[in-house]
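Appendix B, example 12.
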Amino acid sequence: MIRAILYRGVDGHITGYSAKGHSDYAEEGYDIVCAAVSILGATCANSLESVCGIIPEILENESGALHFRLPASLSPEAMHDAQVLFGFLHQGLKDVAEQFPQDVNLSIQDWRKK
């Protein structure tokens, strides 16, 4: 199962994303569920930089896992733009999770510093 998490900061804004695992919907190379979740996360991370000029902090990016978060300090305008992209990510992941509930678990969690 893919576990996808959107992290929410104390102000209610989504500030990070994590996805790990495999859906096992189909064999590797033919798994549309893994492909959908992967492209949604990668497009959000890439668009933060290429569209919004925000360079996300990539915490992990390897087979079966992607974790990134926003930089600590953003202008209100940049935060607004980031929230639009995270809204897109949330909606896409929600749609995939509803279509394939046995393969994708989506949650929103409060960000906790370690």
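Residues 2-110 form a domain with the Alpha-Beta Plaits fold (CATH 3.30.70.1490). DSSP finds two helices and five strands in the chain.
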